[in-house]
Amino acid sequence: MSSDKSLRQSATEMWCLGRYFPLLIGDLVSEDDEHWSNMLTLCEIVDNIFGPKCSSKSLDHLDHLIRLFLTQFKTLYPDQSIIPKMHYLIHYPSCMRRFGPLSRHWCMRFEAKNNYFKEMAHVIGNYKNIAKTLSLRHQRLSCYYLQGSQIDLEFGKGRSFSVGCLEEKRLILETFTDYNEETAVIIYPWVKVRSQVYKPGYVLIKEIKDDVPQLCVIKLIIVSQDNTIYFIVDKLHNIEYCWHYHACYTINKEREITLICKLSDFCDHHAYNFHQSFNSSLNNYYFIVQKYLIF
Question: How far is 245 from 27, CA to CA, in rounded Å?
């Protein structure tokens, strides 16, 4: 933290800290703390804004949250000014109604693109006619992608097993009707799709039911001959949402049923990890912090 009490972090780091902050210190704050409630309202606003889709109902709710947050902020911190970035929040719902989810055209997309050129310029170390050099490098990379390379799919070194040796053989035989117990399948330790890594133990969101995500834990990863990814997962039981920690949780990772699913069967492509609170009374609670609102 700097002398002016601001955090010197990148936008991505601040976003990550904001999502996990309630879980990091939530056990030290009482549930009726008004300042904590104001911060949680801001977290909910951020989740709505970063969401991949929006609806008229969700935008009405977002508009209400923004007004509530700014009103509470001014009441709790009367000596602090509403800075321009906070004022701009008022206009977000109307912009989303006109242009759709803001994450589709926010400045971070352009900054991410510019990051490639900055790194390449540093690696090349030749600044004579640098614009031409970077243009050529970028076009060659684009050509490589357009040639249809499988750069968007990677997987670790797999091990071959016969279906009959696997605990989930019944499920596999029901899904792949042309398989038998002697058929060899390759089980992979990890798979990467468009920079997102999936491993056994990671958590995926299957669907949203009654505003609560239905969570599945990856057990096994199978990639078919046509590069279709299949996950054998355990669907978790009794998922609840905790406002105080701004996270969903399950108790003792209670598992309801084992499923086999394609990656496309999940409503969100991000993989999550379980986290625990520092509150010793919640040792059997396992939390999931979502990147954004899904509905």
Answer: 8
Give pTM, 2 decimals.
0.85
pLDDT at 64: 97
DSSP 180-228: -TT-EEEEPS-EEETTEEE-TT-EEEEEEETTEEEEEEEEEEEE-TT--
User: Treating both helix axes as pointing N-terminal to C-terminal, what angle do 11-25 and 107-124 enclose, rounded to 10 degrees?
Assistant: 120
Give the domain ranges of the chain. 11-104, 107-146, 153-288
Most confidently modeled of 69-83, 225-239, 247-261? 69-83
Among 211, 183, 180, residue whose Cα is nearest residue 293: 211
Distance (Å, whole) CA 53 – CA 49: 9
In this structure, what token pair is assigned to residue 88?
A: 């701009």
Report the C-alpha gap between 116 and 134 in whole angstroms. 10
Helix axes 92-99, 56-76, angle to 10 degrees: 160
| Higher-pLDDT residue of 102, 7 | 102
Strand partners, 153: 193
In whole angstroms, what is the distance from residue 62 CA to residue 46 CA?
A: 9
Contact (CB, 8 A) for 262 and 206:
no
Q: pLDDT band for position 178 (50/70/90)?
A: confident
Which class does domain 153-288 fall in? mainly beta
